[in-house]
Amino acid sequence: MDIVLVLGIAALLGLIPANIAKNKGHSFSLWWFYGWMLFIVAIIHVNFIEDKMKATRDRAIQPVSYVQSAPSTEIRSSQSVVSYPTVASVSSSGTRFQELYRLPSSYYLSGCPVIVDAAALLKDNQSGNVLAQIRLRNISEKPVISCKIAVKTFELNGTELQGVNKFSYLDLNAGAGETFGAKIPVYLPDPVTRRFSVSVIELVFADGLSWTSVPCEWSKFPDTSAISEHFQDDELTKQWHIEFGESSEVAPQITDGLFVCTCGAVNDANNERCYQCHRSQGEILSLFNVAVLTEKKEERIQAEFEKAEAERNVIAEAEAARKKIEEEKAQRKANSRKQIIKTLKITIPIVCIIGIIIALWPGMIKPIYDNYRAYKMAENLLNDGSYADAIQTFQNLGDYKDSSERILEAKYKRAEHYVENQEYALALSSFRELSSYSDSKDRLLSLETQIYQEAINARDNNQYRIAFDNFTLLSKYKYADAAKQLLTTHYMRGDYSVLTGDLKIAVDEYNSAKDYSDAKDKYISTSYLYACERAEERQYADAITYFKKCGNGYKDTEIRLQDAYYNRACQQLLQKDYVGAISSFANCKDYKDTAAKVLQAKYGYVVDHKNDTDTTTYNYLKDLTSARYSGAQAIYNELYAWKAIFIAINTSESDITTNKTTISKYNTWYVHFKIEGGPPNGSADLTWKTFWPDGSINSGKFQYKTYDGDTPWVNGWYETPAYGTTGKVTVTLYIAGESIGSASFTLTN
Predict the structure, then answer these.
(1) Rounded to an integer, what distance in angstroms lies between the CA atom of residue 9 and that of residue 37?
(2) pTM
(3) What is the rounded distance in angstroms from the CA atom of residue 94 to the CA atom of residue 381?
(4) How far is the C-alpha of 198 from the C-alpha of 151, rounded, in Å?
(5) In which element (H, E) is residue 318 found?
(6) pLDDT tens per residue, range 27-78
(7) Distance between CA 625 and CA 631 in Å, rounded?
(8) Rounded to whole angstroms, how far apart are CA atoms 535 and 542?
(9) Can you list the domains of the chain with their CATH numbers?
(10) Average pLDDT of the residues in 1-20
(11) What spatial distance separates the first Cα and last Cα of the chain, rounded to whole Å?
């Protein structure tokens, strides 16, 4: 039995416990592998594992609970919802400031753009002064930049005291709804003050306009009512909140120049929008209408009723679906038991068979199956033309069935394939290897004859490449006169190439023909013709190569070779290949003006390579200066002139950084230099002269030769300093009698 079929059946059986496990919330792939390997154990085990999906299925069939949205009644406070922040106490500890009195309400004046938001009377326990803290609020749409107030003060019995006629809040920028003044104390003149009142007497706005009033009594804010108190209907109140939000707690009103917004903010009646909630005054007042609000309320209640009815229908449908799911669940459970029993009846015998196969597989079944499979694979490879792989696979089978015969068959077919594709070398080798198989000997003889005849035909038709390949192959196996025919083919192609004017191929073919007939003579004569042709075409490198092939003594080869070298060198000279030109001129030393041309090439190289480290430049310049070539000496001096660069003058042998312009005649002095230049790796003898202030001169020669980069020094002193002359001292360095640099300084007492 094919093991693949067995494994396929086992894999399919493994799907049974895998699907049961999946329905219980376990891994499908793990249980499939478990069932594939140990089906009988897995099919029993899976019926006892935990059902992780039971809770999910139970939740899925539970009725959906819906909560109907019913109208609700919200109890709201009956007191005014308009609130104004109080002035914060200056000190929470009460040790310094004591609150004496607080205005019981906010105050306003009809038409005034600001209101008194809150105010308190405080006593400073350290100084005994009484002060007022007043918070004002801008209720107009224009920013306030300054405000002037008047404060009246009273005793507890109501007797009026000296107040503050004018107090200014300056440098403000209070926008709509913003407060100011709370942090600015207003000190009162009489410390017995216990009551006070405030009135605004002047305002200046950011646009330059102002508002003024005389000091007067301001009114308390009008009473406001909550929306719930105003409508006395919870559904109307709810509808109002739907329209304007939960923060809309105040019944809006316009009274005495003020607009009280539903959010509780007090605005100037002229403001189009509330500064706090930014709602339109017109929109708020237009909806503050029982008839309009009642219509919207009834539409909402009808929509809520319809929604609740729809939710009740959904609940009923969910309940029906739950019952149906429970019934289907019970049916599936009953069917599952029947399926398990049926599955066990089918699978137990199959598992037993699989167990027997598995037990016998390693020792008996697998080797047979492997050989059978490999044999089939080798046959398929042979039929597909994959001969090398087929041969290797049959060889690996050893003596299995007729593998040895099939190897010979595969090699024979491969040889035939080589013939069809004109791969004659491989075909000949293959048929020789199969000499005793079938008609291989006859096929070998027939193939050699075929190759020989194809070579003759190809040569007759001037298809020399085919002829060369075939005769070369047959020569390897020493077939007939194939070796002689190969030489003949080279000779014939040489003649053919001369006729067609391809002299280079002719030279190569005569050379390959070697000792055949007069091939050597034709090789020399054709080389001469080709060299002359290349010389006429100014391809002097090729001309030189082929004139050399002619050897000495053939016609005028020697003079033509000299001419080719000369022309090649001149050509290189024009191309600025100076080194190549000099090399070529070396092969025709005494020809024409070669000597002058060599100097010209060397000078060209030097001009293009003005580099004092280039050895070739240096060597060429030596030759050029020896020949007194024009301009050479100037370049030589430019590149290789010696120079002494002054570094420092001081009284130390080793200090090359400190520089002095004057030195006492009682000290030994040192003049430090750095030597630069010279030929590559060159050296020179260095001498010096010292010119003293009294006109005397002394000189000397350095002990060692100097090189590029050396840092020598020259020193001097007076044997009897007291009698020494002061003045300028100059030190000059020389190479070959030529000055290369100097330095001066002054000797002092």
Answers:
(1) 11
(2) 0.44
(3) 108
(4) 5
(5) helix 290-360
(6) 898 888 888 888 888 888 888 888 777 655 554 434 333 333 333 323 232 2
(7) 9
(8) 8
(9) 1-60+302-383 (no CATH), 97-220 (2.60.40.3230), 227-288 (no CATH), 641-748 (2.60.40.2550)
(10) 80
(11) 125
